[in-house]
Amino acid sequence: MLTVNDLTNLKGKVVIVRVDFNVPLKEGKVRDDNRVRAALPTIQKLLKEGARVVLLSHLGKVKHKEAPEVVAEQKAKNNMAIVAPCLAELLGQEVVFSAETRGEEFEKKVAALGDGQVLLVQNTRYEKGEEKNDPELAEAWAKVADAYVMDAFGSAHRAHASTYGIPELLKKAGKPVAC
User: Fold this and answer.
1) Kind and range of the H or E element at 28?
2) Predicted TM-score (pTM) above 0.70
3) pLDDT in tens, 111-149
4) How far apart, in whole angstroms, are the C-alpha atoms of residue 54 and residue 1?
5) Residue 166 near residue 138, CB atoms below 8 Å
6) How far is residue 18 from each of residues 24, 70, 82, measured CA to CA in Å?
């Protein structure tokens, strides 16, 4: 198994990092940023190497079997956009946010990243297929990546699209997968 320190020649490469930004929120702000701070060494190492870093994380729960209005409330309450300013402050640089989890607009934001830039993607659990390791969802994420880093050790045991599906596809494609 590779570690993030084994990854080299990352300049201009898109690296998906599965982070654990499942942080407590209060009044529209991050109440405790310990999980964000825990991911900083990985993110900073990749940025120093010139990578284009795409961060995926879940935040809270979104129960897609509930009534549509309940799902909408859960999504509003667990919006990853709240975490972006906290991350930007801790990194000391702009963090681009993608409200889209996949599709054309998401792909445009990834393609527009410059070397050493960060894109924080909306809550992975906004996607019905995340917790089911939907192969189409995993492919939608994997196709934009040159490498993958698992930094969300609290979620590593889950066979979700962002924790299991992406790395499996990238391994099959001969692309590096690290922790």
Assistant:
1) none
2) yes
3) 999 999 999 999 998 888 888 888 999 999 999 999 999
4) 21
5) yes
6) 18, 27, 18
